[in-house]
Target: Polyamine ABC transporter ATP-binding protein
Amino acid sequence: MADPRLNRGGEAPLLAVRNVTLAFGPKVIQHDLSFDVRRGSIFALMGGSGCGKSTVLKSLIGLLRPRAGRILVDSEDYWAASEARRTAIGRRFGVLFQSGALWSSLTVGENVALPLQMFTRLPATAIRRLVELKLALVGMEHAIDQFPSDISGGMKKRAGLARALAMDPDVLFFDEPSAGLDPITSSRLDDLILNLRDGLGATIVIVSHELPSLFAIADDGIFLDAQTRTAIAHGAPAALRDTCPDPQVEAFMRRERPEALAATGASPKGVSQ
Ligand SMILES: Nc1ncnc2c1ncn2[C@@H]1O[C@H](COP(=O)(O)OP(=O)(O)OP(=O)(O)O)[C@@H](O)[C@H]1O
Model:
């Protein structure tokens, strides 16, 4: 019988993870992971602290080779491909790291220009124009000549996002985009992420602890468990909150205190408060 977690849209998924095991030396972080990221979806990697969300993200963006299993990008086996092919596939990815990861000695504009200078042969005037366009997409065109130390945390995130967009990626990966932002800035970033999906047709994979943000933007996802070291639920965060019978998932989604979780008979391990 077909696995109901896979190919739910009928169309071939942009990313397909098949029976993947991730480990550091003898330490297995996650095993037997299988899921699809549908084109145009906002897919959430969820779970308590230390369950392996960032590790899964690393394997998806090409920074960690799985111990077993396959990761298919548009049906092409990423880790079985040559290094040159992997580099080419990787150019379709845009990554926004937690801090924005801007170079402090470069202006915002120079940061956004970096991938264009590294991966294209465009002349400086064309790069400047593209940088202006990418910054305008995130509402940061006025900050092109400012240094990261002169702008707020939310602006750094948006500048990092403009840099992630520089090469017109098909898929964007966000690691804790709202971390450290106040609720209003965080909600503006959510709107921006939704606009990128709806306006540019990007597919987005997101690691986040921020439940309001996940409920607002993610339409699919998996819930990773630190104890069993695999995914224990698949689906949109809001649907998991409302219908998932698993007490770990329910407690995470409803952010119950450990005492309340103990009353359900479930272990609080791996649930971040
Ligand atoms: N390079 C590494 N070498 C060894 N162990 C690692 C390495 N990177 C991460 N780990 C371990 O892998 C496990 C999963 O870490 P990971 O950062 O992926 O979890 P996470 O779910 O993203 O956590 P958080 O929500 O707290 O950021 C942790 O036990 C961590 O200590």
